[in-house]
Specification:
The chain has one helix at about 5-10. The chain has about 60 residues and is largely without helices or strands.
C-alpha cells in the first residue's frame, strides 16, 4: 500500500524498510527485535495464511 493510502487510514508512520519472510513450518518462532532511539523504527507485519501470535515486551525500567 502506498504511504498516502496508509495516511488515509490514520496510520502516520514512515516505514523506512519493508522485509518479507516466509515460515513454512507450524510453530515457527521468530526473533525479538529491539532498537533504541533515535534508531527505532516501526515494523509492519502481516499473516497471509494461518495464524499469527504477536507478543510485545515492555523492557522499560520505569512504568
Amino acid at each position: 500500500m502506498e504511504p498516502q493510502g496508509l495516511f488515509s487510514l490514520g496510520i502516520d508512520i514512515d516505514f523506512v524498510q519493508n522485509n518479507m519472510s516466509c515460515s513454512t513450518h507450524t510453530g515457527t518462532l521468530r526473533g525479538l527485535h529491539y532498537q533504541s532511539p533515535p534508531f527505532a523504527q516501526a515494523k509492519p507485519f502481516r499473516c497471509g495464511r494461518g495464524r499469527l501470535y504477536d507478543v510485545a515486551v515492555d523492557i522499560r525500567l520505569t512504568r
